[in-house]
What does this fold into?
Amino acid sequence: MIITATMKMADVIIQNHHLLSVINRFGIQLGFGEKSVDSVCKMHEINTDFFLDMINSFNDPDFFPKQKFKSYPLSLIVDYLYKTHDFYINVKVPEINSLIENLQQSSSGDTAKAVTLIHKFFNEYASQLKSHIEFEEKNVYPYIQELETVYNGGDESTIKEFMLNNEFIIKDYATQHDNIEEKLYDIKNLIIKYISPKENFSLCFKILGQIAHLEEDIKDHSEMENKIIVPQVAIMERNLQTRN
It folds into this structure.
């Protein structure tokens, strides 16, 4: 079902509680009563169309309005991606790490050894994810924001200065932008194949659920970068080189 502007925000969450993590990135908290999606968005000064496209993309794997996303300012998308990074590093990763630690502490024998190994793999993954995010936030996103500003309003001298001072081009990023969600798939596989927590099945089930949720979220995040941001930035770069 497609989520619309006139639907009650509460009904959206009742339909799919996983969307709570998405609406939170827009600064929306619980307690919106009977208000519609459009009313809540206007109350928080959020672009309703962009909110609906994002929320529907998460709600339905087949929903990805590529052309519509291309119509939004890159700064709007980048701001959302910054908030997504914060969710990964400060909420989701610590949450999964804590669950794995709990399983480790309550396991024994071969299961304890397997959980210890998986904990090591997850910590390595978390470190890689953090490095990837730091690279994006230090190099990629500021470059995109400056590029868009220059592209939309820069005069000839501003464009020339930007091109001289910026060696980073989006194809370099696209080349090294790994689909890091694949490593989560590997960790999930290890849990399914090698952990047999007879007394802690519910905890193990919870860990798998949280990893799967993060895996899907990062997949959507990468799709936004690869299908929308990278092509749009590449077009801007080519056009600026022509204008320079």
